[in-house]
Amino acid sequence: MKENFAITDLFTQPIHNLFVLTSSIDLLKQINIDLALRQNLFLELTITEKSKKRTRELYEFSKANNLKIAAVHPAYFIKADDFLLHKVVTAIKLNTTLENLTNEMIVDEEYHLKTHDELVKEWRSLPEAVWNAERIAQSCNVELDIGRYKFPVFPLPAEESSFSFLWKIAFRGLEERYKPITDAAVKRLQYELEVIDEMGFCDYFLIVWDIIREAKSRGMMHIGRGSAANSLVSYCLGFTEVDPLKYNLYFERFLNRGRLSPPDVDLDFSWKERYEIIKYVYERYGYDKVAMISTTVTFRARSAFREVAKVFGISEGEISKYSKFIPWTSAKNLINIAEKFPETRTLNFQSEPWKSIIEIASRLSGFPRHLSIHPSGIVITQNPITNYVALEYAKNKGLGLIITQPDMYPIEDLGLIKIDLLSQRSLGVLKETMNRINEGFTDDEVQRKIFKI
């Protein structure tokens, strides 16, 4: 967002293809409502017991200024009896107790998902508000670009296409891997490259090759694994160290014309060096075009129990005394915890406030608790990544990594391409071992034998 941004600035120029719904009388007094804006400007009204006075004020303002009205009904929870759950979740978010929640911290208790008949009945005195809301809904036609892959673009040398450059470096790798080069190897490599090109994956392979090339130039150890080892292109580009011809591995298991999903190459790096290569990807392809993928951490039995007990005002010491007996299981199992887990039968969960805490905590099963960073997934886009998804900074020890707000499943639905850069602790141990060996051994043959092992 621009510095010194003011929402009134949006109305200084004609607004096209946009409906404006607002309940701010102050905003409407500050802007010039011309004929074009008036066509798509609506005062949004809600009808609840608590909002009657405000709704009357907005309605009278609309009549006095010849403005249209639209019926709205925010839905923060599904059923009316979910209001307590809303209060609990809000208290968890604000790190306070139910007792200390104020009306300003929570929403109207009528903001649950109402049926069509309920809303029509409530708005029977203002049918034009319902008609306008229906008109807005029918006029909105948003076509999300779902299912079409959005591949990143590799920065190519002059006068090269992604296919020609991939062909060149793949055959260069073939010359390094095979001595002598056989006809079978040439035919296999040509076939794989043709499939990769037909499916539009050339830039993907070039980017993975670029990451590996940079890692090698920095002396980093890496391992490529998964079905990528079935590909001769992967072998020639240095993704893996497994010869697919020697072991008769089928390329089609990794990639084939009948497979719609993009290739999936998993690259392992030392846990001590992974962040360095991730930083390189950000710098190479642009901080505005790269993001780590998030993962959504949900409430489990113990975390749900602890958080709900806290908002009930239970002390940390007493919470810990009980929570240590709760197993690592789904929060939905809390409701019958004594039946499923005998070790909890001595806990007095049938008396208050524990009975209510257990009941509410079980309803938090599967609720998102917070975002974390996916163990490996990173996304690179051709255009600014904010064209596709919302981003935020990860709270990762001050490293300042940018992550996507959606997790990997919506990312895949949006067609964004994921590359997996994993952290492998054993590689760090192996690298440190090699460094110590190098301190005492200089015989190249010894080192070659060690690497071969």
How would you describe this structure to a colleague?
Helix 7 packs antiparallel against helix 8. The chain is built from 18 helices and ten strands. It has four domains: about 90 residues, no CATH class; about 30 residues, no CATH class; about 190 residues, glyoxalase-related enzyme like fold (2-Layer Sandwich), CATH 3.30.1900; about 60 residues. The strands form two sheets. A seven-stranded mixed β-sheet has the order 4-5-10-7-6-9-8. Strands 1-2-3 form a three-stranded parallel β-sheet. The mean pLDDT is about 90.
**Integer average pLDDT:** 88
- The low-pLDDT segments are none
> Rg, please?
30 Å
Per the principal axes of the C-alpha atoms, what is the gross shape? globular
Order of helices and strands: EHHEHEHHHHHHEHEHEHHHHEEEHEHH
What is the total domain count? 4
Total number of helices:
18
- According to CATH, the fold-level topology of the largest domain is glyoxalase-related enzyme like fold
How large is the share of residues in beta strands?
5-15%
Relevant terms:
453 residues, alpha/beta, glyoxalase-related enzyme like fold, 4 domains, 7-stranded mixed beta sheet, 18 helices
Helices, strands, pairings?
Layout: E1 20-22, H1 25-30, H2 35-39, E2 41-45, H3 52-64, E3 68-71, H4 83-94, H5 116-122, H6 127-139, H7 162-177, H8 183-198, H9 202-217, E4 222-225, H10 232-237, E5 266-270, H11 274-285, E6 290-298, H12 301-311, H13 316-323, H14 337-340, H15 354-363, E7 368-380, E8 391-393, E9 402-407, H16 408-413, E10 418-424, H17 425-440, H18 444-452
Parallel strand pairs: 1-2, 2-3, 5-10, 6-9
Antiparallel strand pairs: 4-5, 6-7, 7-10, 8-9
Helix pairs in contact: 4-12, 7-8, 7-9, 12-13, 12-15
